[in-house]
Amino acid sequence: MYVGRLSKEKNFDFLLNVWDKFYQKYLSTNLIDAELIVVGEGSLDKKAKKLNDKNVHLFGFKGGFELAQIFASSDLFLFVYNGGSQTNAVATRYRDWE
Question: Where does the pLDDT of residue 85 fall: very low under 50, low under 70, confident under 90, or very high at 90 and above?
């Protein structure tokens, strides 16, 4: 699961490239089953939509209880931003969970 702005500044393009390679190696061969849940909007929306057939699910902007439900149903939170120690997505996760 990824939550945040879908932009180069947030390193989202890196995540999409990694997911594409992961899909090619493991998911397309049915070695494992996984889905990438993406919550957010941004300049890389179109690039992300191209991966819809590779188990990428786009939810757009969500907040409050809806976002908390998506967090609760996820097994893994992907943190790909490399420009700081914490993003708003992490803080939001804990605020909405309480």
Answer: low
